[in-house]
């Protein structure tokens, strides 16, 4: 099992470690529910060293990524980030990823469990192009700072970059803890404002400790993968292996925003199949809430009376909504928000109701208050 | 050291003879695995109805935390004579006192002799835990 540069720090903090995507990662340092609340109200520090990180270079770097990714990379402005998918020829997702458009390269962040496969996949489509894919996963550390106090905490350790000027899904460069030309990305997987930063692996512990110290006055706490999962589910963000896999097409997963079928995008792996799938929707990803006592879990079946109408792909306890939540694929016609369905939990039925995703939106909340 | 008046399974249940029944529960380690010391992270415990007959090793219930669901398996056979229903409403009992107040079910008739069954004593369970951690 692989270890990030922060493994000893997690152990020292008493984290409970689990295997995730081939890495030993902290699932929690304290209560998962408390950790999730910390991110919603203050700020949380995440070790994301397990995420796969690639740099694509060469004069055809953009063209190569456009061949395998569903979004239109050539149209991404330099300094911006877009969500995208790698699909197979049948139009089903092999992975989802973030695409960063640098001046002279494309930077990709993929899921830990798919890193090796993605690398091979991109390289296998490079024939005839002047482009090379470099795996930076082991050479770099990746940390996320998420929550309302994140910008203020991080800015204290940054020089030469005004973080306030970086918009959502944009990135900039500056110095971090004395290191030059560090990437600061206003992205995250929690539904909160925050940043993701990338820097040399060897500096991992020093930067973690400096952030932890700088954040103390703001209530910053380390956050594990358990709360990260809760937060992303509340925010309606898809997770590979749950909402996204080879059994569900990207349209029914609600990921149209990551797919460009414009004429300018041109051909790419899976395009023809994606066009066909788009014309034949059968089901859709929705949220469900259930008063309990049981928590919806991946694999549970949903019923409307005796009729099987869907299945759960993610579930958890939501501290923000104070109820049990899940995401589920439900056949069209049964997917109306408010519709009452039943969860089958080993033969016992428990009521639940269809909700529109996301359960939680920071910006939407601001508009109504 | 955990109580030596009972036997343990590798799946972290315990069984103890008391009067005419066998009492079954789960260990502090099992509770810790589920909720990592945060009793608020335990969300649900499903126990059987009295009268149900169980084979040794059979699943008699489920316990659920924020992050996982685990089966509850009985180390010995018997018919459920009594259920600790207090647990279902007060899951914190399990983290506070899994070996006494946190008992789960009583089975009858009691097994003749726990020592004849393929179960671990407290020292053996301790050894199993340290092996599992490595």
Notes on the protein architecture:
- The complex is a heterodimer of chains A (369) and B (134).
- Chain A has 3 domains: 147 residues, Gyrase A, domain 2 (2-Layer Sandwich), CATH 3.30.1360; 69 residues, Aminomethyltransferase beta-barrel domains (Alpha-Beta Plaits), CATH 3.30.70.1400; 83 residues, Beta Barrel (Elongation Factor Tu (Ef-tu), domain 3), CATH 2.40.30.
- Helices cover 21% and strands 34% of the residues of chain A.
- Chain A is an alpha+beta fold.
- In chain A, helix 2 crosses helix 7.
- Chain A is globular, with a radius of gyration of 21 Å.
- Chain A has 9 helices and 21 strands.
- In chain A, the strands form 4 sheets. Chain A has a 7-stranded mixed beta sheet with strand order 11-12-13-14-10-4-15.
- The termini of chain A are far apart.
- Chain B has 4 helices and 9 strands.
- Helix content of chain B is 22%, strand content 32%.
- Chain B is globular, with a radius of gyration of 14 Å.
- In chain B, a hairpin with a 4-residue loop joins strand 1 and strand 2.
- The model of chain B has no long low-confidence stretch (mean pLDDT 92).
- A 6-stranded antiparallel beta sheet of chain B has the order 1-2-3-9-8-5.
- Chain B has a single domain, classed as OB fold (Dihydrolipoamide Acetyltransferase, E2P) (Beta Barrel), CATH 2.40.50.100.
- By secondary structure, chain B is α+β, with helices and mostly antiparallel strands.
- The chains are: A alpha+beta (369), B alpha+beta (134).
Protein topology:
The complex is a heterodimer of chains A (369) and B (134).
Chain A: E1 2-3, H1 7-12, E2 16-20, E3 23-28, H2 32-41, E4 44-47, E5 52-57, H3 61-68, E6 81-87, E7 93-101, E8 106-110, H4 115-123, E9 132-135, E10 140-146, H5 150-155, E11 158-159, E12 171-176, E13 179-185, E14 194-200, H6 204-215, E15 221-222, H7 225-234, H8 271-278, E16 283-290, E17 301-304, E18 307-318, E19 323-331, E20 340-345, E21 348-355, H9 362-368
Helix pairs in contact in A: 2-7
Chain B: E1 7-8, E2 13-18, E3 21-26, H1 28-35, E4 42-46, E5 53-54, E6 59-65, E7 69-73, E8 78-83, H2 86-89, H3 92-96, E9 105-108, H4 122-133
Antiparallel strand pairs in B: 1-2, 2-3, 3-9, 4-6, 5-8, 6-7, 8-9
């Amino acid at each position: 099992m692989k270890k990030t540069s922060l493994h000893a720090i997690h152990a020292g903090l008493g984290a409970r470690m689990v295997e995730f995507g081939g890495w030993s990662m902290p699932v929690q340092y304290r209560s998962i529910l408390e950790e999730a609340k910390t991110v919603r109200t203050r700020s949380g520090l995440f070790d994301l060293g397990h995420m796969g990180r690639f740099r694509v270079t060469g004069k055809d770097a953009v063209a190569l990524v456009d061949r395998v990714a569903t979004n239109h990379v050539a149209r991404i402005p330099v300094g911006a980030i877009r969500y995208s998918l790698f699909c197979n020829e049948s139009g089903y997702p092999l992975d989802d990823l973030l695409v960063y458009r640098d001046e002279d390269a494309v930077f990709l962040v993929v899921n830990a469990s798919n890193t090796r496969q993605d690398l091979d996949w991109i390289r296998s489509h490079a024939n005839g192009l002047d482009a090379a894919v470099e795996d930076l996963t082991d050479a770099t550390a990746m940390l996320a700072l998420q929550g309302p106090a994140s910008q203020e905490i991080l800015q204290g350790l940054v020089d030469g970059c005004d973080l306030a000027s970086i918009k959502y899904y944009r990135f900039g460069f500056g110095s971090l803890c004395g290191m030059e030309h560090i990437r600061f990305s206003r992205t995250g997987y929690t539904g909160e404002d925050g940043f993701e930063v990338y820097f040399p692996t060897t500096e991992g512990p020093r930067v973690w400790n400096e952030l932890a110290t700088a954040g103390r006055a703001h209530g910053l706490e380390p956050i594990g993968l358990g709360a990260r999962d809760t937060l992303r589910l509340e925010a309606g963000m898809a997770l590979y292996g749950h909402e996204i896999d080879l059994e569900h097409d990207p349209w029914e997963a609600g990921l149209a925003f990551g797919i460009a079928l414009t004429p300018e995008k041109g051909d790419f792996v899976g395009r023809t199949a994606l066009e066909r799938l788009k014309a034949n929707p059968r089901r859709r990803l929705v949220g469900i809430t259930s008063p309990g006592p049981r928590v919806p879990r991946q694999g549970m079946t949903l019923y409307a009376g005796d009729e099987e109408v869907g299945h759960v792909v993610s579930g958890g306890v939501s501290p923000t909504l104070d109820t049990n939540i899940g995401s589920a694929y439900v056949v069209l016609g049964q997917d109306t928000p408010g519709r009452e369905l039943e969860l089958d939990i080993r033969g016992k039925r428990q009521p639940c109701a269809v909700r529109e995703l996301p359960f939680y939106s920071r910006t939407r909340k601001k508009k109504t208050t | 050291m955990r109580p030596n008046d009972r036997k343990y399974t590798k799946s972290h249940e315990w069984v103890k003879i008391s009067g005419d029944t066998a009492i079954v529960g789960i260990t502090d380690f099992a509770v810790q695995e589920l909720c990592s010391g945060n009793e608020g992270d335990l969300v649900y415990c499903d126990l059987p109805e009295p009268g149900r007959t169980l084979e040794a090793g059979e699943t008699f219930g489920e316990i659920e935390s924020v992050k996982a669901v685990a089966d509850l398996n009985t180390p010995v056979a018997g018919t459920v004579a009594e259920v600790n229903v207090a647990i279902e409403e007060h899951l914190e009992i399990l983290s506070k006192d899994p070996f006494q107040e946190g008992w789960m079910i009583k089975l009858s008739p009691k097994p003749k002799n726990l020592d004849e069954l393929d179960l671990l004593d407290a020292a053996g369970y301790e050894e199993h835990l340290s092996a599992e951690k490595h």
